[in-house]
Amino acid sequence: MAKNKEQVSAVRRARHGGILTVLFAVIAIFWISPMLVVLLNSFKRKAYIFRYPFGFSANSLSDGWDKFLAGAKQIFCGLLNYRNGLKATNFASCFGTSLFITVCSVIVIILCCSMCAWYIVRVHSMFSRFMYVMCLFSMIVPFQMVMFTLSKFANMLHLSNPVGIIIVYLGFGAGLAVFMFTGFVKGIALEIEEAAMIDGCNPLQTFFLIVFPILKPTIVTVAILQAMWIWNDYLLPSLVLNINRYKTIPIAIQYLKQSHGQIDWGAMMAMLVLAILPIVIFYIICQKYIIEGVLAGAVKG
Question: Where do the domains of the chain lie, and which CATH numbers do they carry?
Answer without folding.
Answer: 2-78 (no CATH), 81-298 (1.10.3720.10)
